[in-house]
């Protein structure tokens, strides 16, 4: 909840097979956080590019690429190739 402003407001858009998720927060003092849960069909390679916040990926059997500029990256139950990078990388 923001003080003297707005947010958090979660948004999403899908363009050319690329899903973009965002959280907007415009306040002097804010607890700006959200949780997005995305389920992907088996056999689909996934690339995640995060700016702020952590990423947890679970159960992938294909290539999984995850980057987070300011957050931890966690991969669990991954059977395919992994390409992980972030503030903290935890595997398995």
What report would you give on this structure?
The chain has 92 residues and is mainly β. It is built from no helices and ten strands. The strands form four sheets. A three-stranded parallel beta sheet has the order 5-7-9, with no helix packed on it.
What can be said about the biggest beta sheet? 3 strands, parallel
Number of strands: 10
* Helix content estimate: under 10%
Basic shape: globular
Features of this protein?
92 residues; 58% strand; globular; 3-stranded parallel beta sheet; 10 strands
In short:
With 92 residues, this protein is an all-beta fold. It contains no helices and ten strands.
Chain-wise SSE layout:
Blueprint: E1 2-3, E2 6-15, E3 18-26, E4 29-30, E5 46-52, E6 55-58, E7 64-70, E8 72-76, E9 82-85, E10 88-90
Parallel strand pairs: 5-7, 6-8, 7-9, 8-10
Antiparallel strand pairs: 1-4, 2-3
